[in-house]
Amino acid sequence: MVVRALASLVLVLIAGCARPSAQDGEDAGGEGSKDLATGKPPPDFAGYDLRGVDLSTPAPGDMALGACPGKNLMTDPMNCGACGKLCMASHVAMNACVAGQCAVGKCSPGFYDVNSMVGDGCECEQEKSENSSTSQCAGAASAGMVTDAMASMITLTGSIVPVGDEDWYEIVGVDSPEANGGCNKYHLKIAFDQNPMNQFRFDVLYDDCKTKASCAMGEQSIGLTVYEFDANKGPMGGNECPCHNGKPPPGAHECKDHSQTVRIRVFRAMAAPPSCESYKLLVTNGV
After folding, report:
1. Cβ of 17: how many Cβ atoms within 10 Å?
2. How far, in Å, CA of 82 to CA of 87, rounded?
3. Do 213 and 273 lie in a common domain?
4. pLDDT of residue 233
5. Which domain holds residue 233?
6. Is residue 91 part of a domain?
7. What is the CATH number of the domain that holds 175?
8. What are the φ/ψ torsions at residue 63 (nearest 5 degrees)?
């Protein structure tokens, strides 16, 4: 009796540990595969974790995080809009993710995103010589001197970056003394040699940063593409050819000294879209 009872107990234990199989005529995903006490699948059942939780359905707290539990696909630049989607662009020091879309968070020093397009990152580089002072009249960069003693020229190049930037230059125009009976050769001219899509303009002010510089025939010196002051076509219609120093004889003109220091403000025309393109200004005298 004892032996038979023990044998029966062993059979019961073995039967309790057995798992139904396809050979037993039951589907592995059917009711026969669940723990009768909890109603959940066995811990090692495919598609479930050790707690018996179905992994194919995210937990309510993970629904907003998409397929990357613990990651916010709306704000994470390492998983932006999709698990593993990395935000990365040129000259960007800090990438960002906004509403599931990559964005520029912070540009590398000296670079700017002027077109607001993520694909090319911070596409514009500011001139290395520019600083906060040279973007103001009072700190205008000294660009040198042009004299009519011999034909002379200065070339100014730059770009208007970032948006709203201004480039300021200081130029000294020298009107050298003329021989009596000669012609005053002073002819200060400032003009764009390179102005892509006609997007750049410049103003010309005197050294006080307030007074608009006089130019040929009295035209305005604001919002220009060309500026000229010619001693023989002055703002008052003067003609210093021929001319004499001091009080001129009858029928002649006085050789005046038109030497001046001017400040040039280069900027982008209001209607022009921002870009990385460069301008080139030529400043000449005596030509």
Report:
1. 6
2. 11
3. yes
4. 76
5. 137-285
6. yes
7. 2.60.120
8. -60, -40
Number of domains in the chain: 2
DSSP 221-236: -SSBSEEEEETTS-TT
Maximum CA extent, the chain: 155
Least trusted range by pLDDT, from 26-40, 116-130, 224-238 = 26-40
Neighbouring CB atoms inside 10 A of 3's CB total 7
The answer to whether 261 touches 170, Cβ cutoff 8 Å, is yes
> Kind and range of the H or E element at 196?
none
Q: Distance between CA atoms of 52 and 38, rounded to whole angstroms?
A: 10
- What does the pLDDT look like over 162-178, one tens digit per residue? 999 999 999 999 999 99
The whole-model pTM stands at: 0.70
- Count the neighbouring beta carbons within 10 Å of the beta carbon of residue 151: 13
- Placement of tokens 């040198």 in the chain: 144
Quick one: 222 and 276 in the same domain? yes
Does 91 lie in the same domain as 184? no
Q: In terms of domains, do 121 and 144 share one?
A: no
